[in-house]
Amino acid sequence: MRSIVLVLLLTMELPAQSGPKRVPRDQSDFFERSVRPILVERCVGCHGAKKARGALRLDTRDGLLRGGDGGRVIDLEKPQSSRLLKAIRHEGPLKMPEANRLPDREITILEKWLELGAPWPENSPIVVPSKSKQHWAFQPIRKPTIPAHNQLQPIDYFIQLTLNKNRLKPSPAADRRTLIRRMTFDLHGLPPTPDEIESFVNDPESNAEERLIDRLLASPRYGERWGRHWLDVARYADNKGYIFFEQQEYPWAWTYRDYVIDALNRDVPYDRFLMEQMAADHVAPDQPRTLAALGFLTVGGHFMNNTHDVIDDRIDVVTRGLMGLTVSCARCHDHKFDPIPASDYYALYGVFRSCNEPRVPPLLETEPETKEYKSFKEELEKKESALRDFVTKKHSDLVLGARTRAGEYLWAVWKSRDQPPADDFMLIADPGDLNPTMITRWRVYLETQRKKPNAVWSPWFAFADAKESEFPAVAKRLSAMILNRLVKAAFDAPPKTMKDVADRYGQLFSAAEKQGATEDPDGKQIRDVLYGPASPANAPLELDWGFLSLFPDRATQATYQKLLKELETHLTKGPPRAMVLLDSTRPFEPRIFERGHPNRLGVTIPRQFLSVFGEQKPFQSGSGRYELAKAITSPDNPLTARVIVNRVWMHHFGVGLVATPGDFGTRGDPPSHPELLDWLAADFMEHGWSLKKLHRQLMRSRTYQQISTQSEQNTTCSKADPENRLLWRMNPRKLEFEALHDSLLAVSGSLDLKQGGPPVKLLTGAHRRAVYGFVNRLDFPSLWSSFDVPAPTSSISNRLATTTAPQALFMLNGAFTREAAKSLISKMPQMKNPEGNARVDDLFRSILGRPPTNDERDLAIAFVSQPGENRWIDLAQSLLASNEFLFID
Predict the structure, then answer these.
(1) What is the pLDDT of residues 320-344, one digit of tens each?
(2) Which of 129, 331, 496, 613 is the most buried (most CB within 10 A)?
(3) What does the buried/exposed string (b/e) look like for 707-741 if buried means 16 or more CB atoms within 10 Å of the residue's CB?
(4) What 3-state DSSP class applies to 401?
(5) Do the beta carbons of residue 424 and residue 112 sit within 8 Å?
(6) How do residues 118-166 score in pLDDT, each as one tens digit?
């Protein structure tokens, strides 16, 4: 009995000792954004893996729960009594840190953390990384030399070098029937027709492969196939996701999609392709269709109209999407693993905060000279004017309130001085009917004034830093200071509270507002607080302000919603437009948000490129977006070319030379063939950043044209390199959902090859290619997810490739597959042969691109000869659901 009780007691202790259960998302985010940075900066230097004073480890949750030589340091049942909290509060003999007490806000965060039960995401120890700039990806690209006597193509030379080192041999070449299917799917995302297969198989010319590749690259199907790959990177969708009161859909996201497809078909140099997507308004301002390229920045989610999240998304798509760097991880603190400080993040934040999306985007074409368009334009101008007038009026109200209610804003700033930001745990003081953005502007202004002797604000800071019982002594000291005459008079009698101090300043500013312009130096100094260039009241007027935060009253929201909806609804009735991002008239001067919170402002930093690439130079032109684009596409940037050649390699071979195509940082995988990666990147830039030339290089290599199946020759290779990272054979690959969708339509003779235009609903009778399907960010289809299509919530560099039951059920029971089988059978000629041999042969050629074997033919004939309806349709559907149809060898 005692042993059973002991087991039960031990079992009860297990959760505390073995680690936490799954941590809820909000608590995990709280830990990552607020708690982890404190532990990294304040604790693990003395209580980590390398050094553990008092045997106390604070780099893991187990260490936190275990405690040190003095016993446990936290009590989750009575968290406020924890020794850890007493130590950081400097209550008692044990003080942590010993020299300086933590700031109150950090203590508050740790108190809240323990009250939540010390949530700590699993498998997430605190690691203080080296953040080495010597990491391979940050080094310049150096093109390796290939010996002159080498007879192999460069790609095959580097692959063979690695195989030789490992005593492995490449596989034999694939037959032509396999190659044309592989090449056509790779470049078109469609199966070759039976006639195309037979023509290629029987082509007697030695350059047949080269001519096939050129033909495939010249087809508009190429841009549709590779455009879909790029749209993953661009997190493309046709609506905004969760928003407040704007219309949910992007009426013209498709103009960006069409730009991508067209640019790839024209083989626009990749560096130019990126320049246009980041700064088309600078590089091609007079080309309306090219302006649609800016959809790369603007088709992301709207995140409940949270400006900071929208900007974070744009930073991520530019840095991770184009350079394979997770810069967004530096939003709340310096990057944990890569040499990317928070200052780099906010330098880029300043770039995108200095841009805006116009409410009326530019037309995709020149203005039509028709009576209908003239009428449309007149109505559009009326609606745009009504919205602009409303915004201007509300902006005037905001500015006026910042001046006439200055005392109230000062009091609001004071009340929220030590409170954590609302993002942490909603304890910030209720601003009432004051504008939250203006409260922040007043706070920033006061922080700036504190840094220098000030005849106006010295009393404020003196009282703010003192206890109320000390106010009489503070007032006496003020009498001896050189102060503004009017300010000094306001404090002849000592105030009793900080509310009293704020009220007296409010009275001073009210008097200055009523008096108007004055020649009195002291009066002018007071008035400059309200009207000077640094005044918090000088808020910029931007049409796309988020009015829910600026004007919390419902009447304002309702009016703004109505005017905005009328404008957007009318716009959709007109010609298509480009989703652009333009520089604001007044660039934003960024400051670091401490812990990532916009209400906690740190030091000012310039808009500039990432520090890991050398000396930083502040951007000078507008927002800096054009200079950022030039820095990203510079040949001196070692990441951009490496990332794209690796990504193209991945789509041809199934896995990249770097297996983590979205992360080239220190946590990513090293390249399997580093010399080959650098040779490809250097050659890519030397030959005009041409993607089509890169395709030709890869597909003409012996490495690409190997068989994908096992053979007696490569049994040794399979044992030595089971994952095929050394590329001793070709990787078989599964069709993505879009290629599968399009292939079902293609082999059934139902595919509509119309190009471009507004999106269509897939699987509902529209037989367009999947790239033209409506992508619903707000309600992403579960069918797409089951086929590994990533939701467009962020930039995606590579997709998963799973095999699951829902996929098989869709192929065997789904209406779409069934309809494709019916359509295929209905279009096949009725054969006179009663046994149907020729018809079976045609069916195999149409679906699998080859005739059946004798055994397959006999089985098929036996199957369709059995009693029952739709036997031919059943046979067709079974072939469509076969692995041979679903995979590329």
Answers:
(1) 999 999 999 999 888 888 999 999 9
(2) 331
(3) bbeeeeebeebeeebeebebbbbbeebbbbbbbbb
(4) helix
(5) yes
(6) 898 876 677 655 567 889 999 999 999 999 899 999 999 999 999 999 9
